């Protein structure tokens, strides 16, 4: 099986109409695993999930929002993957999965990064800790809320120390930062354009899914673009 994973900062799931709009797009993209960040929900139950994913075979784990901010939900199609274990942290939700078709084991983590540099260091530590927990091929995706290079921020040329720390985390964990097709940025306020969202994969993931790539998807009525990791090739 060659999975498709969608990651998207949706800026809130409180409105039913918005959830139905997201459901329409997810049906169009045909993903096997979906990670939505900034849900702004303390509880995500089956009723909410059913308005996001039309299949009856969906399962999920989530990180509750803190007040009216934050929150992550990771959903998956149980016909394609079976969850083995999960981890709910401060800034991430991680799961180990087994493929229903061939039994291949792998791990995925969905991230919603903080805005403060001190807290970002906690995120790097959290990623490193969970990465060492499961000795599996890894994919880590989401809104990291930080760029790596000046070329990833248009209209704001200042590069923060957190960018160097982010790159060091990627290097220390031997992760691969895939290039992004479909455009250079994933967030915009119409004055600045920035790449905050990405997928990072381990060499073991790349060896198993040799045609893996990531693409920026269409953005409608949102300041964030969703991104798709496609392991089936262009």
From TrEMBL:
Endonuclease/exonuclease/phosphatase domain segment(s): 6-224
MF annotations from Gene Ontology: DNA binding; endonuclease activity
UniProt-listed PROSITE patterns: AP_NUCLEASE_F1_1
InterPro entries per UniProt: AP_endonuclease_F1_BS (IPR020847), Endo/exonu/phosph_ase_sf (IPR036691), Endo/exonuclease/phosphatase (IPR005135)
Lineage top rank: taxon: Eukaryota
GO BP terms in the entry: DNA repair
PANTHER family: BNAC02G09200D PROTEIN, ENDONUCLEASE_EXONUCLEASE_PHOSPHATASE DOMAIN-CONTAINING PROTEIN
Protein's name according to its UniProt entry: Endonuclease/exonuclease/phosphatase domain-containing protein
């Amino acid at each position: 099986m060659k999975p498709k994973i969608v990651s998207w900062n949706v800026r809130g799931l409180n409105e039913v109409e918005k959830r139905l709009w997201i459901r329409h797009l997810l049906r169009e993209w045909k993903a096997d695993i979906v990670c939505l960040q900034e849900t702004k929900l303390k509880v995500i139950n089956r009723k909410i999930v059913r308005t996001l994913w039309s299949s009856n075979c969906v399962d999920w784990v989530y990180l509750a929002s803190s007040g009216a901010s934050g929150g992550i939900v990771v959903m998956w199609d149980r016909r394609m993957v079976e969850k083995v274990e999960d981890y709910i942290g401060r800034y991430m939700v991680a799961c180990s999965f087994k493929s229903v078709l061939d039994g291949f084991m792998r791990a995925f983590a969905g991230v919603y990064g903080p805005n403060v540099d001190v807290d970002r260091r906690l995120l790097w530590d959290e990623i490193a800790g969970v990465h060492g927990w499961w000795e599996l091929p890894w994919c880590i995706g989401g809104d990291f809320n930080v760029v790596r290079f000046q070329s990833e921020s248009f209209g704001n040329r200042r590069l923060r120390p957190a960018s160097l720390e982010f790159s060091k985390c990627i290097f220390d964990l031997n992760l691969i930062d895939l290039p992004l097709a479909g455009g250079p940025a994933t967030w915009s306020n119409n004055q600045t354009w920035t790449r905050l969202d990405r997928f990072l994969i381990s060499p073991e993931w790349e060896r198993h899914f040799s045609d893996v790539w990531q693409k920026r998807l269409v953005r409608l009525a949102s300041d964030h673009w969703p991104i798709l990791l496609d392991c089936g090739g262009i």
